[in-house]
Structure formats: C-alpha cells, structure tokens
C-alpha cells in the first residue's frame, strides 16, 4: 500500500480532506465527501475505451474499473474487492504503471484547463505521479535483489558444498573430512593395503576385502565424557571391550544368527585412527573379519552370508602353532616356520549329507569320520607322491569334523591334514613334509623298519582268555 505522502491529491483538495477507505476492502486513499450518483464518472477520469486503459489491459490481462483516483462505480465494487483479495494490491496499482498514470493525468487535466493557471496546476499535479513507483514492482524487485544477494553470500562463504550443508551449520561429523570408512553402512565391504591399514576403501563384496560392515555403533549410548569433543583417544584394550560388548549382537542380527562360532570369521570393530579422533571423528563400525596371525585381518571374497564359513585352506598350506598350548593358530604360515599341521585337501560334506538349503539334520561325528576315512588317505598319498613316501614322514592322517552348531549356520566343508599328536596337542613341525625336509620337534623323522615278509610288526600276539604276558620266570613246582 502506498503512503499518504506518495498518493497524489485531486480536485484541489488538501491532505486533511482525505483518509483511507475501510469499507469495501479497496485499501486505497479516497475522498470522504464525494460520492457518485447514478454511476457518473468524475471529471478527471477518461472513458474505458481510451489509450491508457487499453495498455493496462494488454499488460495485466485485466480490465480497469473506472478512475484509479476517484471512486468506483457501484456495479463494479464487488469485482474490485475480488481483485484486491486475489492480487493483494490496490486496484490502481494493479491496473496502471508509471507511464499510464502520466498519460491519464495529462488527459484528465485537458478538459479542466481554462488558462495558464490551470495548466500550471496540472503540471504540478503530474510531478508526484511521475516519481511514484509501482508498489508491486518494488516488492518483486526487492525480493529479486535480496535473493541474488543471499546467493552471492552463500557462494562466497562456501555455503554450497558436496555434503549439502549450508554455511557452517553442521551436524555430527559432517564438519570433519569424510572417507569411505565414515560413510560406510551395513552391507558395505572395506579393504586396505598392508602398509596403510588406517586408510580403508570401499570395494564390491565380490572382490577380495578385509571387513564387511554389519552395522553402525551408536556412540550416543556410551558415557558422554568418553566420546566428547575433548575426550582422549581410547586405548586398544578399551576398543576391544567395546567390540566384545556390542559387535557380537550386531553381527548376529545382521546375519540372522548365522555366524559360525567355530568358523573362520569373527566379529570385528573398526574405529578411527588417533589423528582422525583429534579432528572429531567418532565413527565406530561393527562387522565381520577373518583374523590372521599378527593381529591382522586376512582377505576373503564374497558376502559372509553367501559363503561357507568353515576353516578351509589351499592344499599344501601349513597352519601355525602356539608353542605354549601346542594348539593351531588358524593362520597360514610359511612351511619353513613352526606349524601344527599341513593340509592335504578339503572335502565338501554336502555331497554326502546335504547342502545348506537341504534341511537335512547334522551328521554325527562318527558318521563324518567313517565317510572321511575313505577319502583322506587317498588325498595324502597323492599329495606326497605315493604311500611309501608318506610313510617316511611318520605323520598321521587326520581330518576335521563339523559340530552341530556350525552345521546349523551352513558350514559344510572339512579338511584332511597330516600331523603328529603330542601331549594333548600337536608336535611342532618345520619344513614342507612333501619335500623331505621335515623336522618333528626339532628332530629328523625316524620311520620304523618293516619286518620280514609275512610278519606283522607292532601288533601283539593274541593270548587265550585268562592269560597275560609276563617276562618273569616262574620255577616249576617241586615234585
């Protein structure tokens, strides 16, 4: 709405003779004493067919209602009110621009001019109208200028970035440098090189990787001080506690309870390195990894829910040993290093007892051993180049079996291997047994000599019931 000092006065009236018209909703300034009888137009208006109004019709697509500076014909009041409600502007503002207003005032002044005084008076009346700007255009121009200024400010201050943030308003970790680790979600697979374990990259799970993300660990559930902006970097022991307390549940939920507790995979935790922690990164990811010796993660291929989780290794692999417990470590080592056993081959039990989707029950350990007893010796003889060469190693042929809980998670693969039992564990082997360079507990193997043909060596002679073997000589009873 225009102000009182911007609105031109007509008919020679002073400012105090005009006041806003409230009735009718026109919202403009109107004379208070004059009214139209019989729909007559005031002297200072022009007919609807003249040039000014035609231009207004062309520009706005509307037809003006009478004099913009006088009162409106009674028949047109309702239409004016509708236009005011629809456009939110005064009728005179909606239908006239600056040039049209000048033309109208010049036309209105002509019939009333009686001489030089009237002409001068008309000149003076036109001056304010020329200076007056269209209110609607002023509003639109202000909006446009404001939008351009705001966009320029945001662009200059980095308000538009790849993260979708505006200016410096950030939430959580969007203010820190993002990478594949911080952006990872459940189902993503990450890997890294041995010389850069702190820089993981996302790869397809069908390619070799070291970690499969099972879920994001919500650090808001932890004590506030532990993950606050000024909190110190947690110790490795603390990260291990967080893993043991949370990741097993997340992994089990992710796999639907299908993680083999006796298989090659284990729950793992990925956490930021110390330099990232100092920058504000607090991301934690629970996932699945395949542990390897040296507290590292071995590479594996395929999503865990789609692969057999059984411990399996390539033929000829040597599996490390813990010298204190004499138990296998589960990690592949160079055969020239101490190890517990050497793999001769693997066997898929699904061919005999049913696959993962068969729904068949778990085969007992006895049933598995009976089936493997006809397979593993053949694999060993083939691996060592014949039965005679294998006998020179003095090693035993053994095989793994699948427990019932592993069977229910879908594990179906076992392996055959050669080793030598020792005091509740395994003897320490060094060297590739297939190449004849084997040491057992630091000694060269000493195979037993075979007896003459037809003689059994190592088998005791059966005795009749009630008799036991004894080397003590008993004298014959006296007569």
TrEMBL record:
InterPro entries: Septum_form
The organism's place on the tree of life at top rank: Bacteria
Residue ranges annotated for the Septum formation-related domain, each copy included: 186-416
Location of the region described as Disordered in the Swiss-Prot/TrEMBL record: 1-132, 442-479
Compositionally biased residues, Basic and acidic residues: 1-13, 470-479
Annotated Acidic residues bias: 52-61, 73-106
Transmembrane segments annotated in the record for this chain: 138-160
Name assigned to this protein: Septum formation family protein
Organism from which the protein derives: Gordonia hydrophobica
